[in-house]
Design goal:
The structure is a single chain. This protein is α/β, with parallel strands linked by helices and about 425 residues long. It has two domains: about 5-20 and about 230-415, Enolpyruvate transferase domain (UDP-n-acetylglucosamine1-carboxyvinyl-transferase, Chain), CATH 3.65.10.10; about 20-225, Alpha-beta prism (UDP-n-acetylglucosamine1-carboxyvinyl-transferase, Chain). Helices cover about 30% and strands about 25% of the residues. The protein is built from 14 helices and 24 strands. Strands 3, 4, 5, 13 and 14 form a five-stranded mixed β-sheet that branches. A four-stranded mixed β-sheet has the order 22-23-1-24. Bound molecules: ligand EPZ. Ligand EPZ binds near residues 26, 120 and 370. Ligand EPZ binds next to helix 1, helix 5, helix 6 and helix 12.
Length: about 425
């Protein structure tokens, strides 16, 4: 088991490029199952979740390679089952369901793994696919989906704008008969990126990234070339680290519009943020608390940025309040931050952060992906040495995190 060793207290200064978004590349890799021929995906992050997706693709009969941030997938699916071992590696494995069912009319899999952020049911995925004609049976924890008469376009109103369910329905609807309408669809930009790729492959999708998505089924899709959108959560992580170290950094390769709910939080903290084109400059001053941060579906403040921003606010002057509205168990980083000296009280959905003067290095463990990144943000700004264990969680979504922060002047290494 590897650890990150962080000697805190060094201002981050310099420039770094934000890579492609994990939550975009994973559904896009799954979507290649629907296509015939080769797809080339540029700006692909080299992270362990991408390798997990590649293992699923290889198991299904496709070939996949990843070199210098370009993934090449040759799609030729010859089976419809995903073994439990592969399903357990990450939550996004569930996105293969819509793609496999759409392509082969069958899919056998178990419940997915991924970050333990609460119950994370898949009822919205299943009920929507059933309305499109899928038949589901469950035996010993294995779910078997079939579409004996093919999938049919349907009018669906989601009870909650679930990101994964919206993606699964889009994937299932691409090759279905007729028109599918998704109302109360998730509006995350990663969904628009998935639709952009699929439309390049020949799909007919409109409205992705808005509340109503319409998909008209086509008879086949051809592989295509696409550049994965920037990772807005990695950008928020760098911004948080700049804030926690009192640094000044320039981020390139970002999409400023995707950060509309995040930038005002940093401005309220007292940071100076200036954007131009695909770059953003952030300079941290003395940090102030932020009155209230409510996590909600896009375009509101993202749950995925809650932990890293909390790490930065641990040393801000005054009291900051978080309300986590998406996941029931997404404050698992709090005990480790407290061990480092933070003053944070959690009650149900609410976390109250009383800013302290400084944090101190400690031995801590990552419990999930973004919670792990929050520990890195805290450690970079803390006094003394922090050793972070269980960093496989962090590697799921951050490409070579120690290198990126070292290049900005952080003292961080892997052992
Ligand atoms: C996606 O997860 C992201 N993962 C998550 O990012 C992100 O936190 C989340 O969306 C919310 O933005 C990927 O894109 C791969 P949801 P997903 O379905 O699709 C409930 C990260 O750190 N729900 O929108 O699993 C669910 O329990 C990760 O990068 C149901 O009740 O999220 C949760 O409370 C972690 N029934 C809420 O909806 C369902 O059938 C949001 O889940 C589906 C979801």
């Amino acid at each position: 088991m590897q650890s990150l060793i962080v000697d805190g207290g060094n201002r981050l200064v310099g420039e770094t490029r934000v890579g492609g978004a994990k939550n975009s590349v994973l559904p896009i890799l799954a979507s290649t199952v629907l296509t015939d021929g080769e797809s080339v995906l540029h700006n692909c992050p080299v992270i362990s979740d991408v390798y997990s997706a590649e293992r699923i693709l290889t198991h299904l009969g496709c070939s996949s390679s990843l070199e210098e941030n370009t993934a090449i997938v040759k799609s030729s699916v010859n089976r419809y089952d995903i073994p439990e071992k592969l399903m357990c590696e990450m939550r996004s494995s569930i996105i293969f369901l819509g793609a496999l069912l759409g392509k082969t009319g069958r899919c056998t899999l178990s419940l997915p793994g991924g970050c333990e952020l609460g119950a994370r049911p898949i009822d919205i995925h299943i009920n929507s696919l059933k309305k499109m004609g899928a038949v589901v049976t469950e035996k010993f924890g294995t779910l078997d989906f079939s579409a004996p008469k093919g999938l049919c376009g349907s009018k669906l109103i989601l009870p909650f704008p679930s990101v994964g369910a919206t993606e699964n329905i889009i994937l299932a609807a691409c090759l279905a008969n007729g028109e599918t309408q998704i109302k109360n669809a998730a509006r995350e930009p990663e969904i628009a990126d998935l639709a952009d790729f699929l439309n390049k492959c020949g799909a007919k999708i409109t409205g992705a990234g808005e509340g109503t998505v319409i998909i008209n089924g086509v008879s086949s899709l051809k592989g295509s070339e696409h550049t994965i959108m920037p990772d807005r959560i990695v950008a928020a992580t760098y911004m948080s680290a700049a804030a926690s170290t009192g640094g000044e950094i320039r981020l390139t390769g970002i999409c400023r519009n995707d950060l509309d709910s995040v930038v005002p939080v940093f401005e309220e903290m007292g940071c100076y943020v200036y954007s131009y084109g695909d770059s953003m400059f952030i300079k941290a001053n003395k940090l102030h608390s932020v009155k209230k941060i409510l996590t909600m579906p896009y375009p509101a403040f993202p749950t995925d940025a809650q932990a890293v921003v909390m790490a930065a606010l641990a040393c801000a002057e005054g009291t900051s309040v978080f309300v986590e509205n998406i996941f029931e168990n997404r404050y698992q980083h709090v005990p480790a931050l407290t061990k480092m000296g933070a003053d944070i009280k959690v009650e149900g959905k609410v976390a109250i952060v009383e800013g302290v003067k400084s944090l101190s290095g400690a031995n801590v463990y990552a419990t999930d992906l973004r919670g792990g990144a929050a520990l890195v943000v805290a450690a970079l700004g803390a006094e003394g040495r922090t050793v972070i264990g269980n960093i496989h969680h962090i590697d799921r979504g951050y490409e070579n995190i120690e290198k990126s922060f070292s290049l900005l002047g952080g003292k961080i290494s892997r052992k």
